[in-house]
Each structure stands twice: as C-alpha cells, then as structure tokens.
Design the sequence.
C-alpha cells in the first residue's frame, strides 16, 4: 500500500483521520455506524475533491460529514456485518470512569435531534467558532446558538441527578 | 459600572462557557458570574457536559489499520472491500510475525469502545418475558432454593451466591432461571407478593469492578433500579410504587455481599 505524501490531498486527509473518526463517532449511535459514516464521508470527499478550494480542509471535511450524517440513510444500510472492520479497529481503553454515567450520556445524546447534536459536537468536541459552524452548515449564527442552547438544555434534563440515588449498605 | 449593569445575554453565557468571547468581555462575564450563582451553575453544568462528551469520544481519535484503504478513490463492492481488508489484516499479521512487532489487530480485543451496559434494557426485557409467564415463570422453583443458588452460582462463577430474601417487604421467592446477560450466563430471580404482583432481580457478570450508585430507568409503567458492584451488574424490575422498588433494590444490595 503506497503511503500518500503528506502534502497531497490524500496525505492531508490522512493526517486528519483520527479527528474525523472521533467526530463521526460522536454523531453516531454505535461504533459501526461511526465507522460507516467516516467511510461514507471520505468517499464523498474524494469524489468531490474538485470542489475543494484549497482553504480549510478540516472545515470542508467536517461539513461533508455533517451533511452525510443528516442524510444518513445510505450509510446506515451498510452495516451491521462489520466483523472485519471491527477487528482492524482496535479501540483504545475506555476513558470515562463510571460505566452507567457513560451510558446515560450516550442515551441523552441519542435523544437529540440530528441538527442539534451536530452543532453541539462541532462546538464542544471540535472546538469550532460559532461563526464557522454557521458557515459550515449554511445557517445564521442565531440558529447555531439556539440549537446549541436546546441541545445543552435537553442533555441537562435527561442527565438530571434525581434519577441517581447514592448507594447505602445499611447493616 | 457594577456587574449588574452588564447582564450577559443567554448567547454570551454559552460563548463564555465555550471560551468564545473577546478577552475583555470574557472578563466582564466572569465578574457577573461571580455575583450570580444561578447563571454560574448553568455555565459550569454546560462545561461539565462538554468535558464529559470530550472524555467519552476521546478514545476514538486514533488511527485504524485500514486507514490507507479508506482513501482509495474508487471503492469496490462491500464484499470486495471486505476481502481487501481481510488481505490487509493477513498482511499486517505476517508483517508483525516477521518483525516481531505484532500490531494489535487481534479479534480478542474486539470489544467496542463504548461497552455500554445494557443492564436496564436486559432487565426490562427479562421482566416482560418472564413475569407475565403463567405456567413456567421459573426453571427452578423456590422449593429448591438451595439447588437454585448452587446452580446459578456455578454458572455465574460466584461462590456462595445467596438468593435475596425479600420477606420483610412482602415478597416471597417464586424461583429463578438462567438468562443471558451481556452475552454471558446470568441469573434471574422472581418474587411475588400475596396479590400475585411480581418483581424480578437480574444478576450478571460485568467487566467493571467499581461500584456505582443506583440508577433508575422507566419504560412505561415498568421501572428498574440498577447498579454495578464489584464485577457484577444488578437490576430489580417491576410495576410497583417506585419507593417500594427502591427499598427492594436497597435490600438486595444489602444482602449481596460485596
């Protein structure tokens, strides 16, 4: 397998792959779906390389991925028979401490509408400026703000502490 | 000008929490938050959310062994791709053996990064399936409690498995059965009160060795309390008042030795 040179289009994408993989997973409901979204977005990027203006490649790729995510039907039909891919994609150790808390966060994220989830992830995970998110998604900054606010509100509601009771082992 | 004159807008609070204000405005909002604990609490909750999200997905920021393949301009059918990936995996393996630097591509570590515990879902399903069963709700009845405990204890690789006694809460043991929990052998105990109202208690192995708090999940009227303790996941499920179900959970927690 020939490694693309670092300055080439492919080489630059290759350098961004870890970040793209993380963003894809942050939008998806499972590892398999995240990997499918990543592949699908890269396919799209490669076929549309003529449209890339040589400006910020990362923003361009994040935009493509966000769009693919919102038209999600095609990539979602591809799995779940992902045995080989999964074997190749050896995960790093889990970083989040409490497994139940992790699950609650996942459930909360999965309950968000796609447009809110994308804005939240671009801001929180990818560190994008609000104005950049607006440009990438082709929406007004005000819409970015309201989607962000609603996403945060919803997560707070579903993560509310009233559903957690400290363990007691009375003796 | 006091900080009360410069009440930040909702958008500015978000921008503050994301570090997207100009430095002087960031400072002004910080001063406002120092005097306004309610806004400060919201901002810090958003920041905590953000940090939990980053922690959750951080492990995915990595290279995959097949990354080069992802950038081939034309892709063949999925099947062809699989063959290519299999070939790549084989190559990597051979290369690894050859150089003594085996890349970690073994299937043994295949567990997904988000090994989410599906305990409440599994407990809910088990309750729905078995608690409504009239003729065969359990495999081993309460009359053989000692056998039940030994048998399920063996399957769970847990010596001295004790079946919780919920008599003090008005529930007696109906019996138990072997069920799959997270792809492994688990135990389901069923209880009933004098009106025939049933509860189930699910125990399964869990890779996590830590202890968690009680969590609560509801699907319609069916409610579940679940927790993880020392390598085992537990869940109690039923359609009884929440306070009662919580007492049941606490009682089970108390009776299962850590």
Sequence:
């Amino acid at each position: 397998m020939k490694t693309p040179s670092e300055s080439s289009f492919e080489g630059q994408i290759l350098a961004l792959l870890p970040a793209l993989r993380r963003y894809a997973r942050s939008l998806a409901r499972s590892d398999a779906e995240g990997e499918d979204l990543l592949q699908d977005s890269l396919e799209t990027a490669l076929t549309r390389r003529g449209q890339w203006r040589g400006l910020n490649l990362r923003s361009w790729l994040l935009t493509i991925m966000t769009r693919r995510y919102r038209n999600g039907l095609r990539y979602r039909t591809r799995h779940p028979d992902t045995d080989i891919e999964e074997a190749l994609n050896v995960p790093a150790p889990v970083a989040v401490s409490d497994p139940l808390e992790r699950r609650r966060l996942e459930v909360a994220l999965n309950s968000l509408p796609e447009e809110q989830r994308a804005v939240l992830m671009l801001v929180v995970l990818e560190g994008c400026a609000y104005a950049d998110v607006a440009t990438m998604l082709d929406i007004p900054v005000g819409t970015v703000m309201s989607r962000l606010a609603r996403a945060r509100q919803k997560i707070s509601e579903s993560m509310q502490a009233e559903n957690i009771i400290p363990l007691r082992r009375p003796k | 000008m006091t900080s009360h004159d410069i009440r930040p807008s909702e958008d500015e609070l978000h921008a503050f929490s994301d570090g997207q204000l100009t430095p002087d405005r960031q400072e002004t909002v910080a001063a406002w938050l120092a005097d306004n604990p309610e806004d400060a609490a919201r901002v810090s909750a958003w920041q905590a959310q953000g940090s939990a999200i980053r922690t959750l997905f951080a492990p995915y920021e990595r290279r995959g062994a097949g990354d080069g393949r992802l950038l081939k301009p034309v892709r063949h059918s999925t099947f062809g791709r699989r063959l290519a990936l299999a070939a790549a995996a084989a190559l990597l393996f051979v290369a690894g053996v050859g150089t003594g630097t085996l890349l970690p591509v073994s299937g043994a570590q295949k567990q997904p990064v988000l090994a989410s515990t599906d305990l409440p879902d599994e407990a809910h399903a088990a309750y729905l399936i078995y608690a409504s069963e009239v003729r065969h709700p359990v495999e081993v009845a309460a009359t053989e409690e000692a056998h039940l405990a030994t048998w399920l204890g063996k399957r769970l690789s847990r010596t001295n498995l004790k079946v919780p006694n919920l008599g003090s809460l008005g529930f007696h043991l109906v019996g138990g059965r072997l069920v799959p929990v997270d792809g492994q052998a688990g135990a389901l105990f069923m209880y009933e009160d004098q009106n025939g109202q049933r509860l189930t208690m699910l125990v399964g192995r869990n890779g996590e060795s830590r202890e968690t708090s009680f969590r609560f999940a509801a699907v319609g009227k069916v409610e579940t309390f679940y927790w993880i303790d020392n390598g085992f996941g537990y869940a109690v499920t039923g359609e009884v008042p929440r306070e009662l179900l919580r007492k049941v959970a606490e009682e089970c927690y108390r009776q299962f030795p850590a």
About this structure: Chain A touches chain B through 71 residues (CB under 8 Å). Residues 96 and 102 of chain A are 7 Å apart (CA to CA). Chain A has a mean pLDDT of 79.
